[in-house]
Write a structure and sequence with these properties.
The chain has 10 helices and 5 strands. By secondary structure, the protein is of the alpha/beta class. The longest helix is centred in the first third of the chain and has 19 residues. The two termini are 16 Å apart.
């Protein structure tokens, strides 16, 4: 009997701890038809993620949670002021290839996780916290400030710990992939990890 692949995430924000489980599970089932276990996420702030020894420790902890198929997913925002290219930032924080025996995928949300919600804002309009006229901007990843743009489409203040998981549960994943290059990278990373 084949066991489900295990994805062990490392995230930077408190809201992403719950949201990443929802998101990875949905991507695996909706895009690839695969049930995936998502291990308890390891929270590591963005400053520590840029320190190879700190990120390396977190990767080793998460790699130990992967039994059989699967791997480690490192997910963080690309809101650094000194490195504006997500690809460059991913290369900068990538671990040594021989650090662990399981695959490691790095995903940088440009500029913030919330840009993925902007990429599918129209699909969030049915959520009670979001205004009915919420519309997806032409280029949701064009500029910083996704949180404030998103809040402008809401009836209440945006709170990562409250809204990230809820919006991740209802967002249109295919629309997000169509409108966001960094979300397409997320989908590809999950595909690589679940094999």
């Amino acid at each position: 009997m084949n066991s489900a692949p295990v994805v062990a995430p490392i995230v930077e924000g408190h809201g992403e701890v719950k949201a990443v489980r929802e998101l990875v599970t949905r991507i695996a089932t909706e895009f690839f038809g695969v049930w995936t276990e998502v291990a308890q996420p390891f929270r590591l702030d963005s400053g520590k993620m840029r320190k190879p020894e700190e990120l390396g420790k977190a990767i080793r902890v998460q790699a130990a949670r992967v039994t059989g198929r699967g791997g480690v997913l490192v997910l963080r925002d690309g809101d650094d002021s000194d490195v504006t290219c997500p690809v460059e930032l991913a290369r900068m924080i990538a671990p040594r290839p021989d650090l662990v025996e399981v695959p490691v995928q790095i995903v940088i949300a440009r500029h913030e996780y919330e840009a993925w919600f902007l990429a599918t804002a129209t699909s969030l309009a049915g959520h009670p916290a979001v205004r009915d006229d919420a519309a997806t901007p032409a280029d949701p990843e064009a500029r910083r400030g996704a949180k404030s743009q998103l809040e402008g489409m809401m009836h209440e203040s945006y709170k990562e710990t409250l809204h990230q998981a809820r919006f991740s549960a209802v967002m249109d994943l295919r629309a997000a992939a169509q409108n966001s290059r960094s979300f397409r990278r997320m989908v590809h990373a999950v595909e690589q990890l679940i094999g």
